[in-house]
Amino acid sequence: MMSSERPTLPELARQALSSVQRGYDLLAPKFDHTRYRTPDSVLDATTRALKTLGPFTDGLDLCCGTGAGTRVLREVCAGRTAGLDFSAGMLTQARYRYATAPGPGPHWVRGDALAPPFRPGTFDLVVSFGAFGHFLPAERPRLFARVRETLRDGGTFAFPMAAPPRPGTAAYWTLLGFDAAMRVRNAVWRPRFVMYYRTWPLAEVHRDLLLAGFDVALRPLPELGRRADDSPRCRLLLATRR
């Protein structure tokens, strides 16, 4: 990778001092060369798991960004695919990514995940990758309710969930420090930039999905490795609309 493809420190600082939407508009041309992009290993593992659960017809990539995760839908859905994001810059990159791809391209939609501009029952699969840190815990019930509305009866909402780092490890202190710094930044600077790594615990997510009208199951993704206690490092959460 050429170093010029990565965002520079001043560019990252400018993004961090912007709103979430403006920040991603600025970062979009170089986003796929950052570590914030969902790794291909996670996308491939998700694809393999969903292929055993289909067939699916129409699919939505929620908070699709540059469309990296949308290829999962193109591999498991036989009908229409769509990507929803609120950043015009990220959607521009997504359109460019798929401009020369064979077959019908995804339908890219600019909009808010908390108020998706789709008719009820439009999709039978909704996926999302790496976006949930941008939603505060109080917004989670509304987000899940909107996803449920976009799904047909029996439709699936699927997303990977990594196991949290163990207390005392370097990863644990890194994420704790990042969230603390972000809270300080948002207390003293406007506009806010909402991005937290520790606001999506499995127990609370499971509870809110049940309350929103989903049945919930977890499927290990063993190809992504196991921890020292032999538990999977990552699971695919499958929420089925009741």
Describe this structure in words.
There is one protein chain. The chain is an alpha/beta fold. The chain has a domain at about 35-165 and about 200-240: Rossmann fold, CATH 3.40.50.150. It contains 8 helices and 7 strands, in the order αααβαβαββαβααββ. A 7-stranded mixed sheet has the order 3-2-1-4-5-7-6, sandwiched between helices. About 30% of the residues are buried.
Q: What are the defining features of this structure?
A:
alpha/beta; Rossmann fold; 8 helices
Which CATH architecture of the domain at 37-164 and 201-241 is right?
A: 3-Layer(aba) Sandwich
Instruction: Count all strands and give the number.
Output: 7
Q: What Rg, in angstroms, do the CA atoms define?
A: 18 Å
Strand order of the largest sheet: 3-2-1-4-5-7-6
CATH class value of the domain at 37-164 and 201-241? Alpha Beta
Overall average pLDDT: 94
The CATH superfamily name of the domain at 37-164 and 201-241 is: Vaccinia Virus protein VP39
Main β-sheet description: 7 strands, mixed
Tally of DSSP helical segments = 8
Element pattern in H and E = HHHEHEHEEHEHHEE
Broad structural category: alpha/beta
Task: Give the overall form.
Answer: globular
Determine the N-to-C terminus distance: 45 Å
What is the topology?
Elements (H helix, E strand, L loop, with lengths): L8 H8 L3 H8 L12 H12 L7 E4 L7 H7 L4 E5 L2 H11 L8 E4 L12 E6 L11 H11 E12 L7 H19 L13 H11 L1 E7 L13 E8 L1
Parallel strand pairs: 1-2, 1-4, 2-3, 4-5
Antiparallel strand pairs: 5-7, 6-7
Helix pairs in contact: 1-2, 3-4, 6-8
